[in-house]
Amino acid sequence: MKETRLIKLTKNIFLSILTTLILFSFESCAKKITFLTSSVVPAARGSVNVKRDKNKNYVIQIHLLHLAEVNRLQPPKQTYVVWMVTDQNIAKNLGQIKSSTSFLSKKIKGSLETVSAFKPTKIFITAEDDGSIQYPGMQVVLSTDNF
């Protein structure tokens, strides 16, 4: 009789631990969102990965391909700036895109990784003359849907 109770108790504990691990693993999974096709730079493609870290902040990783050189846009600009719309509907400047080309390829790649305490609901990229501006300009290069 004691062995049966011990086995049932052990099974219940094991199931509780397993359920807890599964719930935490779903919470820590990254959400991958792709950018919509751009009318400003139609060849540009990219994605955004958003996940929560152990401090309950949002880790935002952006990867882009086929960006046009920012000084070739009409009108020419100085930098690409990434913006986040928060769950309070406020636009926050996340930073400038780091762009580069690889040794064997001329396609321009861009990336940005940052952390935010605010929950993102949309990410978009503008072409700007100054990377430290507080409000986005009108030239939106890439944007995601709301997520």
Can you put this structure into words, describing what you see?
It is built from one helix and nine strands, in the order H-E-E-E-E-E-E-E-E-E. The chain has 147 residues and is α+β, with helices and mostly antiparallel strands. The protein has one domain: Immunoglobulin-like. A five-stranded antiparallel beta sheet has the order 1-2-3-7-6, with no helix packed on it. A four-stranded antiparallel beta sheet has the order 5-4-8-9, with no helix packed on it. The relative contact order is 0.20. The mean pLDDT is 88.
Compile the SSE list and pairings.
Elements: H1 2-28, E1 31-34, E2 45-52, E3 58-65, E4 79-86, E5 91-96, E6 98-101, E7 108-116, E8 120-128, E9 140-143
Antiparallel strand pairs: 1-2, 2-3, 3-7, 4-5, 4-8, 6-7, 8-9
Give me the strand/helix succession: HEEEEEEEEE
Class by alpha and beta content: alpha+beta
**What do we call the CATH topology?**
Immunoglobulin-like
Give the biggest sheet.
Answer: 5 strands, antiparallel
| CATH A-level architecture | Sandwich
Task: Give the overall average pLDDT.
Answer: 88
Number of helices: 1
Distance between the termini: 53 Å
Helix content: 10-25%
Oligomer: single chain
What is the domain total for the residues?
Answer: 1
